[in-house]
């Protein structure tokens, strides 16, 4: 459910897809459809915690195991929340343009300075350096959303199916 939430708001069709994959039961899907979308992930963690507690009680394991597993679930939730918050606050638009301006001003100054040199290798060096800088900028903009539906995005649909 968390991976669906990272890409877009979870629709009823997404919940039914999770049911088709065997991740959710029909009763769970109906319960999630009735609740508010922002509460769905915390409810699934609550369900996970209840399953862990019932499993530990049925197995007769010590209560320290229950505390350990509950702490692990909370860590997973904290990491997922951190990812969600990071994706919700991408690099602000003015900062992105400031970075682009800084790179191109830097390349302009290098072009002027390299034009004043008397070396035959200067244009080649400038071409390689500018190619690397512009490539790094393009790569960083592509990797800023690793969960999107573009060439470098993670194949979440395939991973969820596996």
Characterise the protein shown here:
With 162 residues, the chain is mainly α. It has eight helices and no strands. It starts with a helix and ends with a helix. The model has no long low-confidence stretch (mean pLDDT 79).
What secondary-structure arrangement, pairings included, does this model have?
Layout: H1 2-7, H2 12-20, H3 26-34, H4 40-59, H5 63-88, H6 93-115, H7 122-143, H8 156-161
Contiguous runs where pLDDT drops below 50 for at least 5 residues: none
Shape: elongated
Structural class: mainly alpha
DSSP summary, beta strand count: 0
- Order of helices and strands, N to C? HHHHHHHH
Round the Cα radius of gyration to an integer and report it. 25 Å
Main beta-sheet annotation: none
Number of helices: 8
Average pLDDT metric: 79
Overall helicity: over 70%
Summarize, please.
The protein starts with a helix and ends with a helix. With 162 residues, it is mostly helical. The chain has helices at residues 2-7, 12-20, 26-34, 40-59, 63-88, 93-115, 122-143, 156-161.
Descriptors:
elongated; 8 helices; 162 residues; 75% helix; mainly alpha
């Amino acid at each position: 459910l968390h991976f669906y939430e990272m890409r877009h708001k979870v629709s009823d069709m997404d919940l039914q897809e999770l049911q088709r994959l065997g991740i959710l039961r029909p009763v769970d899907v109906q319960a999630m459809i009735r609740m508010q979308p922002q509460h769905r992930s915390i409810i699934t963690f609550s369900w996970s915690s209840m399953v862990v507690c019932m499993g530990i009680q049925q197995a007769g394991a010590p209560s320290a195991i229950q505390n350990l597993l509950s702490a692990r679930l909370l860590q997973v939730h904290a990491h997922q929340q951190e990812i969600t918050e990071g994706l919700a606050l991408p690099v602000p638009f003015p900062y992105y343009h400031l970075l682009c301006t800084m790179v191109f001003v830097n390349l302009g100054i290098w072009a002027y300075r390299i034009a004043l040199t008397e070396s035959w290798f200067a244009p080649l060096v400038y071409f390689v350096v500018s190619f690397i800088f512009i490539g790094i900028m393009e790569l960083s903009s592509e990797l800023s959303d690793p969960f999107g539906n573009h060439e470098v995005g993670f194949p979440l649909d395939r991973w969820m199916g596996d």
